[in-house]
Design brief:
This protein is mainly β. It has one helix at 28-32, and strands at residues 4-10, 16-23, 26-27, 52-55, 60-62, 67-68, 72-75. The chain is built from 1 helix and 7 strands; from the N terminus they run βββαββββ. The chain binds FE2/S2 (inorganic) cluster.
Length: 89
């Protein structure tokens, strides 16, 4: 039986940008690509830190190494300079 979890993306004003459902255990970076988020310079191999995102609970996670095991809310903005989502197309 496949278990599904939701990843919701929220902008800096708290506006929900959308939600995707993914299989439990999916790498967060893969889910975020639905919102136009691209891996950092290392291409998702865990060495650049360019994919770090902020969760609604304040945690900063390296999305290419973070598995989604529960519903998550990801903030579109991040505290880290130079790292941001592209405009969703
Ligand atoms: S994409 Fe480079 S560390 Fe995740």
């Amino acid at each position: 039986m496949t278990l599904w979890v939701k990843v919701t993306c929220v902008d800096g004003a708290g506006q929900e940008l959308g939600t995707v459902e993914v299989e439990k255990g999916t790498v967060l970076l893969s889910a975020l690509q639905e919102f136009g988020f691209a891996p950092g310079p290392c291409g998702g191999y865990g060495s650049c830190g360019g994919c770090i995102v902020e969760l609604a609970d304040g945690r900063l996670v390296q999305s290419c190494f973070f598995c989604v095991n529960e519903d998550l809310v990801v903030l579109r903005r991040t505290r880290l300079p130079g790292i941001s989502f592209r405009a969703a197309g």
